[in-house]
Design brief:
Length: 212
């Protein structure tokens, strides 16, 4: 603003209109920062460096412990005015069945792909029932169905073992990224019998996924 006034000799009204600034800003004298606020601001900066994962609430608690006579709102105001904030912590992605993509794959005969999935229901007492279903994707035959209150990865392997003895091994097993399917016990079983786990990509159609 001072550059416009001195270099071009325009009025203050025109200079303010040019830069889109209200004229009252040229008349108001900025209030002086109280020395106590300045001291507390410096303390907050040092606190932020020493404790980068702590926010203004813990800063307030520590300030009170150290003898500062201050309330939480004042600490919050100075914290924000100084631009202090807790660094954003990147959210970890959930573990998925890691593999390399193989594109669309459809069976041409029986015992090529078995599909595993869970269904859920509840009994009259509102308790959840978990149902493991296994089908042959070519014939759509229901190979196995087990209903229990809970089913873990070891029980999934036990059902697969029974089917293996009865029908032989499939080339692929298709499933989602549920914890029972991505468990190491299931992966170890697949490697041992020589079959390939096929994990459906989250949010993708059934026929796209990843092999392991």
């Amino acid at each position: 603003m001072d550059v416009l006034l001195s270099r071009f000799g325009v009025s203050q009204r025109r200079a303010c209109r040019t830069v889109g600034q209200h004229r009252s800003t040229q008349r108001l004298i900025p209030p002086e920062v109280p020395s106590e606020d300045e001291a507390l601001t410096n303390w907050l900066k040092e606190f932020s460096i020493a404790h980068p994962r702590w926010g203004y609430k813990r800063a307030y608690a520590l300030a009170v412990d150290e003898g500062w006579i201050v309330n939480k709102k004042r600490v919050q105001r100075l914290w924000r005015a100084t631009g202090l904030k807790v660094p954003y912590r990147k959210r970890k992605k959930p573990y998925r069945g890691a593999a390399s993509g193989m594109g669309v794959h459809q069976p041409t005969r029986e015992n090529v792909i078995w599909a595993l999935d869970f269904q859920f229901d509840q009994t009259r007492d509102t308790k959840v029932v978990k149902i493991l279903n296994i089908i042959d994707e070519y014939s759509r035959e229901a190979l196995a169905s087990m209903a229990k209150r809970s089913i873990n990865a070891a029980e999934v392997v036990a059902v697969l073992d029974d089917l293996l003895a009865e029908r032989g091994k499939p080339h692929f097993i298709r499933c989602d990224n549920g914890p029972e399917f991505i468990a190491e016990v299931v992966a170890s079983w697949a490697r041992e019998v020589g079959t390939t786990l096929y994990f459906i990509a989250p949010g993708s159609p059934l026929l796209t996924g990843q092999y392991l």
